Amino acid sequence: MIGRNIAPILKTRSLTSSSINRSWFRDIYGRKKKSVTEIVSQQDKYADKEVVTIKHLTEKNSESYLKNLEASKVLPKSKVSDWKRHATIHPMLLESFYTKEKLQRVVDETYKNLTGKDITHSQYNTVSLNDIEFRFNLVKNLQSNLGFELNDFTVSKSHDLLTLYNSVEDFVNRRWKNERNPNAIVLRPEDFTAKNVYINEERNAFEKNKEFNKIRRQMQLAESAQQAKD
Q1: Which of 42, 75, 90, 151 has the highest Cβ tally under 10 A?
Q2: In whole angstroms, what is the distance from residue 81 CA to residue 55 CA?
Q3: How sure is the predictor about 46, in pLDDT bands with cuts at 50, 70 and 90?
Q4: How many CB atoms lie within 10 A of CB 160?
Q5: 95 and 175 fall within a common domain
Q6: Same domain for 99 and 39?
Q7: In which element (H, E) is residue 170 found?
Q8: Does the pTM of the predicted model rise above 0.70?
Q9: Is 108 a domain residue?
Q10: 49 near 9, Cβ under 8 Å?
């Protein structure tokens, strides 16, 4: 690098013609003994800028690195955003998460956002979905707001909003089953209302001890609060 800097200068300066030239030469390699770091940092002063241009090549500004960096950039139009506006809900939790009132509210808000019109559950049967484009837009926004997908059969058979809502409600209220064990029986509280069915609700020793410790801590806190008042 230093050799490149000196070469153009030697073309215009004589090493023996004047004391100024000798002084300049000694300033670099002579009595002043400039450090290599200083020479490199000030090399543009010594080089003829019309003859040579000095550029420090590093990994970050090499041609191959810059080319790969440009190729790796993702255009804004290429980014895919999550289609769900609501956080994904596990199918086992759908029934407890969505009540009928909450489900109807989501359907009402989705319909209003698309059409600008208010609607209630009693009016669902009056809303036709024969317009395929409108049906697809409604289903797409409904899926996004609910946080789960509807299958193609549900979309194809829903020719009015009431049919679509009933399908969504059936999906939400469907009993959760384990796909790894399709013969598993999922029971609900209403399954034990028959007289010939009995469920043992007695707590085991661990649960009893846990509840006892909980009550004891509550009593200790109450006593401490009472003593602080006294």
Answers
A1: 42
A2: 42
A3: low
A4: 16
A5: yes
A6: no
A7: helix 161-173
A8: no
A9: yes
A10: no
Tokens of 134: 């409108």
What gap in Å lies between CA 171 and CA 174, rounded to an integer? 5
Helix (H, G, I), strand (E, B) or coil at 128: strand
Evaluate whether residue 177 is within a structural domain: yes
Residue 142 Cα to chain centre, angstroms: 21
pLDDT for 30:
47
42-46, 107-111, 124-128, 189-193: segment of lowest average pLDDT: 42-46
Residue 68 lies in a domain: no
- Token readout for 187 is 């029971």
Q: How many domains does the chain have?
A: 2
| pLDDT tens for each residue of 80-123 | 555 555 556 666 777 778 888 999 999 999 999 999 989 989 89
**What CATH number did the domain enclosing 117 receive?**
1.10.1200.10
Residues in the chain: 230
99 and 38 co-located in one domain: no
112 lies in which domain range? Answer: 91-211
Q: Is residue 64 part of a domain?
A: no
DSSP-derived 3-state class of residue 120 = coil
**How far are the Cα atoms of 70, 77, 97, 209, 215 from residue 80, in angstroms, in the given order?**
20, 8, 28, 52, 52
Are 126 and 31 within one domain? Answer: no
Q: Quick one: which H or E segment has residue 184? A: none
